[in-house]
Structures are given as structure tokens and as C-alpha cells.
Design a protein that fits this description.
By secondary structure, the chain is of the alpha+beta class. It contains four helices and 15 strands. The longest helix has 12 residues, at 15-26.
């Protein structure tokens, strides 16, 4: 079945500019190549997943898809089809059953990476998904895809209900507005949160690289510190988190 998050794909109208920006943010260099279906790409390998940027000249630039890693792709697809998640285009599941999200199933061995410096990004902490139907999200991520449903938390201060699903070394965080009506509107990928060992050092490095960053502040999880990138990063909103 599903054992982790293999990669996140980001579509960009300017691959070279986006690759340079992400190299500065992550503190690692990408692998460059060209592949059928996506053309030119830049792939950043991190400890628990990869980020794949690809050239895309349409209107849907930004977070494009998630690829979930299976220990046995054929068997996983067989089980998912029995759970109502049939095949869509290529490696993707049918978007009619995934609330509109592009979710691929792949069988891929993780690529070993060198330990990062304290101020570099070492891993993806979580992917942010926005939903207008949290119960549908529980059924998709927990019951059908079989991810570990760790937490269901509502907070009027945030105005949100947050659902957390463990996916290998990362988390799928699904958020819904508390006061919004439940609808069948498609879910959306809305951001990435990157994990660092030393938030202060990472903040200094990323700010020096030319990004507009917020101040370092306490995270919602006790013992963590976070900051956001307000500008300078094309295609996908980003949060940086560190601590316990």
C-alpha cells in the first residue's frame, strides 16, 4: 500500500527562474532533465520526498500534483480501485474520485541524499490542502488511500478545522473554514511547509538570498518556530518550520 510521499509537482511558466529560486530556498541544487509527458524539469531531492518543477505555459501554474509512493504499485492500484479510486490519465487516479486533486501512484525507490547544513531545508513537513467538504476529505485520505489519520482539530481563533494525515515522513494537512457551507467544490493544493533544523539560521540565509520573509514566530505546535515567505518564490506559497 502507500508508504510515503514520493514527490510534489509544481508547474511554472519559467522553469529556469523557478529552479533558481527554489535552489536558493532549499539550499540544494536540482537534477535537470527532460521526460515524456512533462518536458523539461528540475528535480530537488530531499530527505523524505522530491520537489519536481516542470515547464508549463498554461493558466494553471502553481502546485500541480502529488505522487504517493506504493510498496507494490500494481497491488495498491487494485485495492484502491476496489475502494472506488479508479485509474485516470497516466499514473493519476480518477480526479472525479479525488475531489479534483491530481494524485498519482508510483513505485519508486527513495534516492539517498547527503545530510543538509543546519540552515538548509532538510525535508517537507507538510502539504496544505483546502477543502469545502472535510468529511469527504476524511473518506479520501483516511478510508480510501489508507493514510494514518492523526488529528482532527477545530479552533475558532483560526476559523478552521484542520485534519492531519501521516504520509511516510510527511503530513497531508487538510483545512476547512469553520463557518463555510459544506459543498462539493473541488479541493485545492494551497501550500508547502518546509522543515529545517535551525529556524533562525535558515531565516537569515533565506533573507540574505533576497526573499521577503516574515519574522520568526512561535508555531502552532509547541516547541516549533515558523516563518513565511511573502514574496520571491514563484508558483507555490511556502512556510518554513523548525524545532521539535
Amino acid at each position: 500500500m502507500i508508504v510515503g510521499l514520493d514527490h510534489v509537482s509544481v508547474a511554472t511558466a519559467d522553469l529556469d527562474t523557478a529552479a533558481k529560486a527554489y535552489a536558493k530556498l532549499l539550499g540544494v541544487a536540482p537534477q535537470r532533465g527532460e521526460a515524456d509527458g512533462i518536458g523539461r524539469y528540475a528535480r530537488f531531492e530531499l530527505a523524505n520526498m522530491a520537489l519536481v518543477l516542470f515547464q508549463h505555459d498554461g493558466a494553471d501554474d502553481g502546485l500541480w500534483s502529488l505522487a504517493l509512493r506504493a510498496d507494490d504499485e500494481a497491488e495498491t492500484r487494485r485495492v484502491l480501485e476496489r475502494r472506488g479510486l479508479g485509474a485516470g490519465s497516466g499514473p493519476f487516479l480518477d480526479t472525479a474520485a479525488t475531489a479534483g486533486l491530481r494524485i498519482a501512484i508510483v513505485e519508486h525507490s527513495a534516492t539517498p541524499v547527503d545530510p543538509p547544513t543546519p540552515d538548509a531545508v532538510e525535508a517537507l513537513d507538510h502539504v496544505v490542502v483546502r477543502t469545502a467538504n472535510p468529511d469527504r476529505a476524511v473518506a479520501l485520505w483516511g478510508a480510501r488511500l489508507g493514510l494514518d489519520f492523526r488529528l482532527d482539530r477545530s479552533n475558532p481563533v483560526w476559523g478552521s478545522r484542520l485534519l492531519f494525515f501521516r504520509c511516510g515522513g510527511a503530513v497531508i494537512e487538510v483545512g476547512a473554514a469553520l463557518e463555510a457551507l459544506v459543498t462539493d467544490a473541488p479541493d485545492t493544493l494551497s501550500g508547502l511547509a518546509w522543515r529545517v533544523r535551525d529556524p533562525a539560521a535558515a531565516h537569515a540565509r533565506i533573507a540574505a538570498a533576497g526573499f521577503d520573509v516574515s519574522e520568526v514566530r512561535k508555531g502552532r505546535k509547541p516547541g516549533t518556530a515558523v516563518f513565511t515567505l511573502r514574496s520571491g518564490l514563484p508558483a507555490a506559497p511556502a512556510l518554513v518550520i523548525g524545532g521539535s
